[in-house]
Task: structure prediction
Amino acid sequence: MKILFVSDIYYPHIGGVSEHIYHLADEFEKKGHFVRILTGRMSGDFFPDEERVIRVGTGLTIKYNQSVGRITVVPNPYVVEDIVNRFDVVHIHGAVAPTFPLLALLFSKKTNIFTFHPTFDRSLPYLIFKKPLGYFFRRIDGLIAVSETARESFRKYFPGEYRIIPNGVDVKRFKPGKKKRNQILFVGRFEPRKGLDYLLKAMPEVIREIPDARLYVVGGGYRKFKINVPECVKKHIEFTGFVHPDQLPLYYGSSEVFVSPATGGESFGIVLIEAMASKTAVVASDIPGYKTVVKHMENGILVSPHSHEEIASAIIRILKDRKLKKKLVDNGLKTAHYYSWENVANMVLDFYYEVNPSLP
Result:
């Protein structure tokens, strides 16, 4: 089968959508399918699979959903028409946006699949342009959402039957490593919705209880945001800046606790299952997207968003209670293996054939 992934977001842009597309492409190729990825040209230094990427137009950075995303400007839209109709399946990722997603849907005469990734409370553009966007939406043959929260975000504007197929984790890349005692980890772009400020506010209490605790903050963009680090814990915190993806598993593998204090806007939480695959105990905000993955006191601990007190209490409890920590990491590892990319890829391929049984 010839499969084309279409997305405004792909490497070198680091994030969940890029990871999702990359690993699906890998798994599909292992099964003998021909895969290409259509996206925009953009600057950066991480191009892991450029041989299967088709770049047209220019990718621009935008602020969206309290985060940083991409749109692609394509001067000659008919280039997209020529590309999409060379494939059996055109699989679009992201949101219904007036860039690559709409161009692909406008021109494609093939089987059109759409995976919806974002989560949001409401969208004024969708409310205003719901009727004209409906034309494009009706051209989608199969609807996928990465979580129930992503599905509900879109279904209120674009009703339909959505199949829930989650994000995945590379269990060969993220695996248990030699732990450094009392090491705590945060991974993510430095954006307000990621909740890093609340973790930093929690650290004085953590240090009072566990004096040798150390926090590694992994991610880029901190110079653009005001980061308030309490003076009393500065020597216990290391900001690594951007870490090459090849090095990221080392941080997960060596940490005892992973904390993701996001305040909202998360549809799933790939970082959570990356931590679980590394046998690292998870503390995460009690938000809809994260509750898809974390079962409280079973494979992680859920805390109230915006509560540095609860974050501190959860970290301390895990680091002091070895029996609890073992329970969380053992169950977390089972969760991670359910979300292996091999399993996720099989779900997606089965869905393709369900939508169109005559596919090669």
In short: The radius of gyration is 21 Å. The mean pLDDT is 93. The CA atoms of residues 219 and 243 lie 7 Å apart.
